[in-house]
Amino acid sequence: MERPLDALNQAKGKKVIIDLKNRKQVIGTLMAFDIHPNVVIDNAEEREDGKIVRKLGRIFIRGDMVVMIAPA
Amino acid sequence: MERPLDALNQAKGKKVIIDLKNRKQVIGTLMAFDIHPNVVIDNAEEREDGKIVRKLGRIFIRGDMVVMIAPA
Amino acid sequence: MERPLDALNQAKGKKVIIDLKNRKQVIGTLMAFDIHPNVVIDNAEEREDGKIVRKLGRIFIRGDMVVMIAPA
Amino acid sequence: MERPLDALNQAKGKKVIIDLKNRKQVIGTLMAFDIHPNVVIDNAEEREDGKIVRKLGRIFIRGDMVVMIAPA
Amino acid sequence: MERPLDALNQAKGKKVIIDLKNRKQVIGTLMAFDIHPNVVIDNAEEREDGKIVRKLGRIFIRGDMVVMIAPA
Amino acid sequence: MERPLDALNQAKGKKVIIDLKNRKQVIGTLMAFDIHPNVVIDNAEEREDGKIVRKLGRIFIRGDMVVMIAPA
Amino acid sequence: MERPLDALNQAKGKKVIIDLKNRKQVIGTLMAFDIHPNVVIDNAEEREDGKIVRKLGRIFIRGDMVVMIAPA
User: Fold this and answer.
1) For residue B50, what are the domain limits?
2) Helices assigned H by DSSP within G1-72
């Protein structure tokens, strides 16, 4: 792997967990990303302290909110 | 979908819920957005802890305040 | 409307309410704005917890302080 | 007025009050500014909770500290 | 060594510990980095107060979250 | 004076007091600055609550830490 | 000295103390820096409240974490 965004490219279409700076997490399918990385997540669930707090559908997350993106 | 902003383009003219960094939410019709994404929301309602706290009409929200944008 | 700044252009010369990141509000006439959006407000009143705390005249507000701009 | 910085140009040589992000205020004569807007204030007084806490002479203030600039 | 990113290049394929701005740590193999530096870590473990709190697999970490990167 | 950085140029070689965003102050001779403004201070003393807490010699301060620069 | 980064160039290969925004300090030999300034420190020790809390070896520190760099 040459560049970090290659890892996001490999994760496209797969289920990921995104840690956000507001200490919440979003879990769902990675549909799209850009260099910031702004991301679009499908079938998104928001979790707080390990519990699902909202089902959100297809959402846009602003890139500067992202802490890390891991496989779910 | 290729780019995250495509998701916002698909949401144009529809009702969205925007989570803001000040932990408030704005619900209304997505009228316009740009790459930041600054957004314009029509018939905007501001919510805090799930309750409507203000009806705001057509508002401009600065892009760096956006956490996520979801269908309402 | 194509771009979010079009909404500010339509608000020019009208009374607006600006929510700031320091949780204060400024109400007055929108005289000028740029892409940040830095704004100039005339006959500006500063409010905190719904009360007028200062009358400020014609003021310059740094764009990164803006949360949202709504009709007043 | 076309651009927000025009308002600062009109204030040049006049007494202004600058609200800073650290919740202090600086009052004095606006000598120079740029697009950030970094500013130079002459005969600057620093105020906190409405009281003068320091007389500072001619000072440089970093632009990102500025909340708003009003006539004094 | 001429440039700081040379040090990351030398660490590629090796085990590193990354201190994050949210006061957590990630330990694992440095797979990729860019100039921000966004990083990809393989076999990532998240630690908090010295204890492993999550095993995360191959993760993407946003560059602005990085405090420091050290050999593990 | 045309530009704010002119004021720093006039202060070069003179004793200045720099207020930092961490609420500390550095006092010493302004040796160099750039547009951020990163600064180099010679014979630097760090003060906290008006007391000297460290003598630091010749130091580099990152520009984004600067609140204001005043004559000492 | 013309530019602030010249001071870092003079410190290259010497022992420095770096104050970080998380209120920790890193002491060690300055190996490399760039304009942000990201830095590489060799034989790095992390200090908190004046005590060594970790020996870290050769580390990369993200430039935006730097408050100041002083001779050690």
Assistant:
1) 4-71
2) 4-11
Token pair in block for residue A18: 């995104």
Overall number of domains in chain B = 1
Classify B44 as helix, strand or coil.
Answer: strand
Residue C3 has its nearest CB partner, among B22, B32, B65, at B32
Block mean pLDDT (10 aa), chain G, length 72: 94 98 97 98 96 96 98 96
pLDDT of E1 over the 90 cut:
no
In Å, how far are B39, C36, D30, G20 from A32, measured between CA atoms?
20, 27, 48, 35
First to last CA, chain E: 20
Instruction: Please state the φ and ψ torsions of residue C14, each to the nearest 5 degrees.
Output: -110, 165
Work out whether the CA dihedral B61, B66, B71, C2 comes out positive or negative.
Answer: positive
Query: Would you state the torsion angle of the CA atoms of residues G51, G54, G57, G58, taken in this order, to the nearest 10 degrees?
Result: -80
Interface mutation target, options E5, E10, E16, E19, chain G, most CBs of G under 10 Å? E19
Rg of the Cα trace of chain A? 11
Residue B59 and residue C60: Cα distance in Å, rounded? 20
Residues F69, D59: C-beta atoms closer than 8 Å:
yes
The string of pLDDT tens digits covering residues D23-41 is: 999 999 999 999 999 999 9
Q: Cis bond leading into D71, ω under 30°?
A: no
- Other beta carbons within 10 angstroms of residue B9's beta carbon come to 11
Here the tokens at position E37 are 């530096």
In this structure, what CATH number is given to the domain that contains residue E38?
Answer: 2.30.30.100
CB atoms within 10 A of CB D9: 11
Does the CB of D71 have a partner CB in chain F at under 8 Å? Answer: no
Contact assignment for D32 to F4 by CB distance below 8 Å: yes
Q: Which residues contact A10 (CB under 8 A, 6 or more apart)?
A: none
So what's the ipTM on this one?
0.96
pLDDT in tens, C54-65: 999 999 999 999
Contact B7 A32 (CB under 8 A): yes
Q: Residues 23 to 42 of B: which have CB under 8 A from any A CB?
A: 23, 37
The reply to whether residue D61 touches residue F67, judged by beta carbons under 8 angstroms, is yes
Partner residue opposite C31 with nearest CB, options D1, D5, D11: D1
Dihedrals phi, psi of D58, to nearest 5 degrees: -95, 115
**C34/C25 Cα distance (integer angstroms):** 19
